[in-house]
Amino acid sequence: xxxxxxxxxxxxxxxxxxxxxxxxxxxxxxxxxxxxxxxxxxxxxxxxxxxxxxxxxxxxxxxxxxxxxxxxxxxxxxxxxxxxxxxxxxxxxxxxxxxxxxxxxxxxxxxxxxxxxxxxxxxxxxxxxxxxxxxxxxxxxxxxxxxxxxxxxxxxxxxxxxxxxxxxxxxxxxxxxxxxxxxxxxxxxxxxxxxxxxxxxxxxxxxxxxxxxxxxxxxxxxxxxxxxxxxxxxxxxxxxxxxxxxxxxxxxxxxxxxxxxxxxxxxxxxxxxxxxxxxxxxxxxxxxxxxxxxxxxxxxxxxxxxxxxxxxxxxxxxxxxxxxxxxxxxxxxxxxxxxxxxxxxxxxxxxxxxxxxxxxxxxxxxxxxxxxxxxxxxxxxxxxxxxxxxxxxxxxxxxxxxxxxxxxxxxxxxxxxxxxxxxxxxxxxxxxxxxxxxxxxxxxxxxxxxxxxxxxxxxxxxxxxxxxxxxxxxxxxxxxxxxxxxxxxxxxxxxxxxxxxxxxxxxxxxxxxxxxxxxxxxxxxxxxxxxxxxxxx
Length: 537
Prior knowledge:
By secondary structure, the protein is of the alpha+beta class. 28% of the residues lie in helices and 28% in strands.
């Protein structure tokens, strides 16, 4: 693909290392807030191999805010059966071992306006790329980063063309490093990783084979297989004529742990055909190998997510096994968190100290999520690790997807149905009516938003007194019962306020502050809450 919008983009307010899933999301989120970025990607084009990703409710809410939720859902329906399940089998033709997740979306209606889905990354990345470029982002493809330098005024990047070797340099005020698990930026600035390290040299085999006799009658999105030959997981396309097999271990772990965890040692075509057949449980299955990739099953987190003007995101910041599908989602949430903060900094509405909150907020969430992914790996693929590695107890997926908390004395994650609008939590989803149309409370977010209870007119008036204190601050106000209707009369209880109270929600949809009831001086209380959130004054 040719470079896009590149001629005027040797300098940009924000540089992005990496033009894959997380880098493109970062570019789209910045563009959504009017901030131009330039992403630098080593690959000339996205990989055509059908890497599938499990996109969670929170991620779909962010896609909804970008206006691409419906398109993403349409593309997903072409690749996968909607509302699928996750199961464990001896083999595709063998007996069932467990129903891990009987339905992808059981119980989500109470939590979000969005539903989980699977989608191949080659189908998603063009949607994100088009969205980012159309809004003013730039993308340089086929360039690898060779050096990074930052000073008091910004960040400079040296690159070279991967084919011609021609050097090129770029300059920005900030850099988001979303360049993957082998991040060159992370290496150059000397940030290390800490955690459980590598516990499998794994292999993904992309193949064509008719699996419909064993799959067609089941809405299975992910199929774990565990037998004496291998442990891993299948994902197939909708027609079950092709897919991939992720192999984590081979043979008997107890007899030879080193050999068992080196699944990628032999990538000969005959060996890969043998592994696919073992996973299906059919020794003479007709299999064509379309490709393969080696990868390391790892559970590590960067020691810091920030070095002055450089911010790590996605796999550059945290590495986790694919069990649960948390890696890509966590990276997208990283990108969203730093994007709104950089936008306010660059717009002059926030103080530089706001950027300190990126590491403080995102790294604890990443550490918790990495551990939960590891626990699922042990439970689903490598139970022999339980005694030696002592994984954390597995908690329910919604706690991880929607229940994470920022700067909270309550802990890192809670059941999202119990957070009730506490500061540091994601603002709850409720169905409301605005101008007669049914909308989710999530749909009202994106700027700073002040929700006031039905008798909270003093808070609405207070906002009018703040224009001089925070010029240009994007701030919307909604009084329940006046500006929006609450048909089920649940808003005040769900947000933890009385009819005279108020809740201030940040641009990323997390509650910044609330006053359960009226305040003696609403203007002063609100001014203090906004100033503290913006790190000004």
